[in-house]
Amino acid sequence: MSLAADTRTTVVPALRYRDAPKAIDWLCRALGFERHAVYEDGQGGIAHAQLSFGNGMIMLGSARDDEWSRHLALPDEVGGRVTVSLCLTVRDVDAHCAQARAAGAVIIQEPEDKDYGGRGYGLLDLEGNCWWIGSYDAWAVHES
Questions:
Q1: Domain 14-134 carries which CATH code?
Q2: pTM of the prediction?
Q3: d(Cα 51, Cα 104) in Å, to the nearest integer?
Q4: Interatomic CA distance for residues 120 and 104, integer angstroms
Q5: How far is CA 103 from the centre of its chain?
Q6: Contact (CB, 8 A) for 62 and 72
Q7: What is the pLDDT of residue 99?
Q8: Please, which residues bridge with residue 16 across strands?
Q9: Which parts of 18-94 are beta strand (E)?
Q10: What residue ranges do the domains of the chain occupy?
Q11: Residues of 12-48 as b/e, b for ≥16 C-beta within 10 angstroms?
């Protein structure tokens, strides 16, 4: 028996940003996310936001000093490194890369065809989070 809820998306990555309002605008403009819900914290930050991309979603909020955040590190606190990257599946990798580049994304791997299928590229967002953007369908049946 599966423990997963019967909902559209059962895994939703969550991020913290120093400037969450700016990050929301950038993620929508550069990567194609759409605002699903945004709750301000009354102090110029974001208490909680949900951004959708197709049938996927991320959550994000402003970096703050609380019990949860004490277990998280932002890329600039750990030498620009991250322990998790996020992946988006897109129809047109090259067009997406051009849009992200025009919005100021740092492209860390140019678009290329992959041996395992699909095409993809890598970028850093405006606060150093690592994203993989590709056409590879992880749900398709693949032979090993």
A1: 3.10.180.10
A2: 0.92
A3: 19
A4: 18
A5: 15
A6: no
A7: 98
A8: 61
A9: 34-40, 46-53, 56-62, 86-89
A10: 14-134
A11: eeebbbebbeebbebbeebbbbeeeebeeeeeebbee
